[in-house]
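[Automated response] Your request has been received and processed.

Submitted sequence:
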Amino acid sequence: MQQFAVDGWTLLYQMLYYFPWYVGLVLIPMAIRVAVERAIGIRPEAFEGKVSAPLLPFDMSYEVAFRTVTITALYYPLFEELLFRGLPYLFFGFLGVIIGSLVWVVMHPAWQLQYLSAFPLRKKIIFTLTSSSYYVANAVFYSMMWLDGAGLAAILYHIIHNGWLVFGDVIRQVELPTPWKRYRFVRRHPIGEEAPPSFRLFKKFRKPAKGDEPEEKLPLRFVVRKTRRSLADEVKEAKSFMFVRRKVKNEEYKRYNW
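Generated structure:
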């Protein structure tokens, strides 16, 4: 059975030794992938499943940010490296690493494509190719380390890589004051208030039936949202929103025909 136990100095040497490989097989392919996907209109924000409180003056609460960093930067790298490379190498050797890495590569575009259902087929195919190529390069990097007996270094590199990616995104959204965040007032439309004319283009309302109790009129509320984008960019993005007709399960709001 393979042995991966190393002392601290050996681990430090492995981290330094594989850094040029990390740049060549992870960072450079990532930059190429992002450039190609941005050129076809696919931005990294499309894959973010953000969870936030609806009326708080920030995009992500502290507890959600803590959970996101813990799962993405610690749990996922350890789980993926052990499941797709460590254990296959331990039981099946070189062939196990190859098969496990191929499954790991395919798993990424498999879940990412579900966020691109609104894009045309041509762009989804291009994304599949760019995403798969990027993760193939990543798999070569991590597999090379496992095959050289540097499995712990591979796990640490995976943790560091996921960590700086998710931390850079979370720090811009979490409810912590930072000097680079700008604030803008955003007008929110409560459910209980009659929709303005612009909303009537997308939502059709019917008059309440006789006997319905009048719904409480809620006042307009203003919330503060952090953003680093210009107003022109946000207006451009808002024009690209697509409104979907969806069935409402809540009986209280079935009086409206959404």
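Summary generated for your ticket: The mean pLDDT is 77. The radius of gyration is 24 Å.
If you did not submit this request, please reply to this message.
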